[in-house]
Amino acid sequence: MRKTLYVLAFLFTFQNVSAQLFTKEKVTNSIDNIDKKLLTWGYFIGFNQYDFNFDYNEDLKDIQVEKSFGFHLGLVGDMRINDYLNLRLEPGVFFTTRNLQYDESYFEGFEYNDSDLLREVKSTYVHIPLLLKVSTKRINNFKPFIVGGVSAALNLSSNQDNPNDNSSGEFRMSKNTYFYELGFGIDLYLLYFKFTPSIRGVFAMNDEIIKDANPNSPWTGNISKMQTRGVFINFTFQ
């Protein structure tokens, strides 16, 4: 009986949302005015997947990055410029983990064990992007857009100031990272709020590697540059 009620509740909710989105008529309440306000607010939740891009000094095998899905959440501040342009500030907190798998060729001439071939890189970013949102004309209850801009992130788990390096098992990154961002999404106008799914790519502009004390370190000696890149999937409510 309980399962039947859950199924009926889901079908009822889905039917209402579908009716709001796919009707040929625009929703007719206060949500119509949200695009006319100078300032609007909201929040977002979502998933992320971070990666690293490496440049090397010597032609050894690539360092393999084992990626995983992380979680993030944050706030949205939106300033209307005109019917098609909005300036957005989206500060958030992002959690992610990447594992670096080194090839044995990096350790020639060094004594090592299996644990030395793996470095777990856990990161907690305070991420603050400034974005320009470029929208099309609203079509019934849909409004596609593209978005782009720049951002700064503070990595709370960077280990930048840690005196220990990889010889003690500590992988270190720079505390501050700067990105450019590009993405797209669609505004969906529901009865009481605007729901926006979107996807965005982020690309670091600065080198993030903190070198080990030993210039010939097997973990950092062959890396000339290390930069974060990633994909964000956001669900925004305004």
From TrEMBL:
Stretch forming the signal peptide: 1-19
Matches recorded under InterPro entries: Beta-barrel_OMP_2
Keywords annotated in UniProt: Signal
Domain annotation Outer membrane protein beta-barrel: ranges: 37-208
Name of the featured protein: Porin family protein
Organism from which the protein derives: Winogradskyella bathintestinalis
